[in-house]
């Protein structure tokens, strides 16, 4: 039974207390058997049996639960660096989208490439992601926008799950935008989602969640409500892109339909905050998108004070958040949203696990949970987020095994 000893600072991040409570143990040790944690505590309390097992030395560093990126668009083809310059020059996200750029341009590229190409690129992304201390990733479809290509993307996620140790949690986002071929017949596209895509995805067990982008250039509250009613009949759990660019009432809808999370929320209303708090909906902050779109950030403090669990994710995608660096997103949550380092860490561990309904098996360092953890070259969480470096993660363990970058040919 392996034992990680000489841990200077262990953040267990249990789902107890408020967002700033990360339940630190100093001078700690951690033991596991196969893929599950068996013991966590002060090193001085180790039993003689554990002391005689395989010993791994943390060299006095910080240990945290494996980070969880609970909102990404991992599978796509075609970067959109031209839009970066356009936004710097004053074009808005909505301006670019209305002109045929944005999501629509990624859809065009993604439709034209094979499953194998998408898989190879995604596996390479995941190698770099794992080296940052990230052990689980939610991945959305939404760049296919027809049955064939939405299924193609979701099958990429399915294949990733067979080939890579990072846990993949798939989400169906067929309601990302209305594709150009249905521009003059929105109802026919929504019928395609409800009558063909969702039943097929459910039958083939290709997704756990159904997401809808509720926005001026995407889907209305009424359209999203109808899609969620169908999704729930097929056991897909609702998620929302909500109140990102305008205040649409997306947060209120998330509460109404029993969504597990509402994501973005830069323009959330006070009524939306209250509704999410009462319904127990997680708020997923995406500060990389806030930065790239030069927006006013999500009011994280108001959400936390209302009792809403605030998560932090990357929103990794080729347009508005072209980075999978979750530790950087945590630093931005501190600086842009005025979250403390401890609050940000909990946002990407146990609260992120709640946003993908995996908190029973990951997100904290407790006996019975997966042995997913990272050794960080920092004395504590404040120093880690204060001292920005390309990568402070020394080692990542996934299901009890140290991650080693694969040799992709």
Layout of strands and helices, then pairs:
Elements: E1 3-11, E2 24-33, E3 36-42, H1 48-51, E4 55-57, E5 62-65, E6 67-72, H2 81-88, H3 93-98, H4 103-111, H5 115-131, E7 134-140, H6 147-163, E8 167-175, H7 186-203, E9 209-213, H8 221-233, E10 237-242, H9 250-257, E11 261-264, H10 270-279, E12 282-285, H11 287-292, H12 300-305, E13 310-312, H13 326-337, H14 341-347, H15 350-355, E14 373-376, H16 381-386, E15 393-398, E16 401-402
Parallel strand pairs: 1-4, 1-5, 6-7, 7-8, 8-9, 9-10, 10-11, 11-12, 12-13
Antiparallel strand pairs: 1-2, 2-3, 5-14, 14-15, 15-16
In short, what is this structure?
The protein is of the alpha/beta class and 409 residues long. The protein has two domains: 3-65 and 363-402, Urease, subunit C, domain 1; 67-355, Alpha-Beta Barrel (TIM Barrel), CATH 3.20.20. The protein has 16 helices and 16 strands.
Question: Can you tell me about this structure?
Answer:
The chain has 409 residues and is α/β, with parallel strands linked by helices. The protein folds into two domains: 3-65 and 363-402, Urease, subunit C, domain 1 (Roll), CATH 2.30.40.10; 67-355, Alpha-Beta Barrel (TIM Barrel). The chain is built from 16 helices and 16 strands. Strands 1, 2, 3, 4, 5, 14, 15 and 16 form an eight-stranded mixed beta sheet that branches. Helix 5 packs across helix 6 and helix 7 (186-203) packs parallel to helix 8 (221-233). The chain is globular. It starts with a strand and ends in a 7-residue tail after the last strand. The model has no long low-confidence stretch (mean pLDDT 96).
């Amino acid at each position: 039974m392996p034992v990680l000893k000489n841990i200077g600072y262990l953040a267990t991040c249990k789902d107890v207390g408020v967002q700033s409570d990360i339940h630190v143990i100093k001078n700690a040790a951690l033991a596991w058997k196969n893929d599950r944690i068996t013991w966590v505590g002060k090193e001085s309390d180790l039993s003689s049996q554990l002391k005689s097992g395989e010993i791994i030395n943390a060299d006095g560093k910080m240990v945290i639960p494996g980070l969880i990126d609970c909102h990404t668009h991992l599978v796509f083809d075609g970067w959109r660096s031209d839009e970066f310059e356009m936004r710097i020059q004053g074009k808005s996200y909505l301006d670019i989208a209305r002109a045929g750029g944005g999501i629509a341009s990624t859809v065009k590229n993604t439709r034209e490439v094979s499953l194998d190409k998408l898989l190879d690129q995604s596996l390479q992304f995941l190698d770099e992601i794992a080296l940052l201390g990230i052990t689980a990733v939610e991945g959305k479809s939404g760049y296919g926008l027809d049955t064939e290509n939405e299924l193609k993307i979701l099958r990429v996620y399915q294949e990733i799950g067979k080939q890579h140790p990072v846990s993949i949690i798939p989400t169906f986002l067929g309601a990302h935008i209305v594709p150009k071929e249905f521009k003059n017949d929105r109802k026919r596209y929504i019928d395609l989602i409800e009558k063909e895509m969702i039943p097929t995805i459910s039958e083939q067990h290709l997704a756990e969640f159904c997401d809808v982008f509720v926005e001026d250039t995407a889907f209305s509250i009424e359209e999203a409500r109808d899609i969620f009613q169908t999704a729930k009949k097929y056991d897909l759990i609702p998620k929302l892109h909500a109140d990102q660019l305008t205040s649409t009432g997306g947060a209120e809808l998330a509460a109404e339909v029993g969504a597990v999370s509402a994501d973005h929320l830069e323009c959330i209303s006070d009524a939306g905050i209250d509704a999410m708090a009462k319904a127990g909906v997680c708020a997923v902050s995406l500060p990389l998108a806030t930065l790239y779109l030069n927006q006013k950030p999500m009011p994280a403090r108001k959400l936390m004070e209302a009792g809403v669990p605030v998560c932090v994710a990357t929103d990794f995608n080729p347009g508005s958040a072209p980075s999978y660096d979750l530790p950087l997103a945590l630093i931005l949550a501190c600086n842009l949203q005025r979250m403390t380092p401890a609050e940000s860490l909990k946002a990407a561990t146990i609260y992120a696990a709640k946003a993908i309904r995996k908190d029973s098996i990951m997100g904290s360092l407790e006996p019975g949970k997966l042995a997913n953890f990272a050794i960080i070259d920092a004395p504590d969480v404040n120093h880690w987020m204060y001292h920005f470096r390309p990568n402070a993660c020394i080692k990542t363990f996934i299901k009890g095994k140290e991650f080693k970058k694969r040799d992709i040919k």
